[in-house]
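Researcher: Good morning. I'm working through a list of sequences from a screen, and I'd like to move beyond sequence-only analysis. For each chain I'm collecting a predicted structure so we can compare shapes side by side. This is the next one on the list. No need for commentary yet; just the structure.
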Amino acid sequence: MKKCTIPLAVLLSMGIASGGCKKQLDVFPTTSEVDGNLIADAQSAQVVLNGVYYRFTDAGLGLDGIQSTRWVDGQEACPSELAGSLIPGIGALSPAALYAPRQHPLEYFFDDIWRYSYDLVNAANGFIKNIAPVTNIPSQTKQQMLAEGAFLRAFGNTQLLLYYGQYNDPSSKFGIILRDTFVTSSNIRLPRSSVAAAYTSILLDLDAAIAALPSLNTEICYANAWSAKLLKARLLINRGAPGDYAQVIGLTSDIIGNGPFSLEDSVKNIFLEKGFSSKEVMLGILPYSDETYKYMTYQVFRQYVASDSLVALLNDDGRNQWMYKNVQTAYGSFHAVTKYYPGDPDNPAQTPLSCYGFAFRLTEAYLLKAEAIALSNGDLTGATSLLTTVMGHAGAGPTELAAVAAAATPAALQQEIVKEYLRNFAAENGVDWYALRRLPLAAIHRLNPAISDPVKLIFPIPASELTYNPVIQNPGY
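Model: Good morning. Structure tokens for this chain:
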């Protein structure tokens, strides 16, 4: 659902509301402001840190006026529309509009991801700034909180780099605006960094997070060391510089072999039955107890629906029985997204897990490792085994498995791995879009014929930023 965008300058004037101090994600401040003399001890620090997690879940008021986690819009629907797995439903953009020539950067998605990411970075910066001088917080507690702040800032900056920067060219000057302090009127105008500087900054945060985060946090909706390692692997495979694929293999091997997570026997169980009790979930998005936003988005308004392309990818796959359902309406027939919903799409009624989200799952580590092996011309037998393991847990059919068995070259196997990203992570966390872009343009076009212009693989800097900070625009816009 389309949301109102609040300019950064407006956010500077907001104040944080007092909230509960218990470490749980249904206790959110009511705004994103985390700057000021708000931290005096561990208890108040946790309230402010909750404000940063608030931004991570994209929490705010839904159209019904209820506090909601709106991860579904920018993190599920946007990337999967770009990848071709979802299409706009009733009253939304046409699929072709996502790739139409741009005269100015005012498209909803362009501004939405930018706003989300910098709100998160700004909130993390405010938290880190204000906890640093406080001396009466136990050292281990403080170090973990700083690591959580670093992880969340790294997530926001990773989003910015992978959507708006020339992420696959470390020599490019078209990086992001690196903000490492809370934004005020005196420092809002900053130049773009180089791509190399952006990677250096994000990796410093991730290494700090990996070193100080616990193996498991108090809840799966809080960052842990393994999710930080997976984010680092996600970042490095997109850079693809010398040595990066070896690092990805090392990180993912560590997660798979030594982490406290395991693949779910059936992927379906994660979304429709177990939720965060599944041992595959590495970092989850916990909804408010009374919210309806995601359920309403998919089941009632059908703002996003499965595309014919996704249906074709799932033609010989057990997931075609539960990830989408065909429905008939006065507006025509749709493939309703039922990945999170086991009920009757013709007579929707909210279910306990229909608003949950999943930022990191162990399946991604398997696919990243398999892809990194293929991209580094490694042992294809090992990469194929990782891929087929994931597909077996997901319910892949004989035609899909035969295509993997026939993939005799690194390029052919990478395409099969990307197809599994598209199937496995449709409407989930954005890695389907990242994976598709790692293919050559001709291969991207075969999987999503709407994409033919490489310029459109990177978003333009939105007008909302250019108004306050006239930085250089991306080439082609």
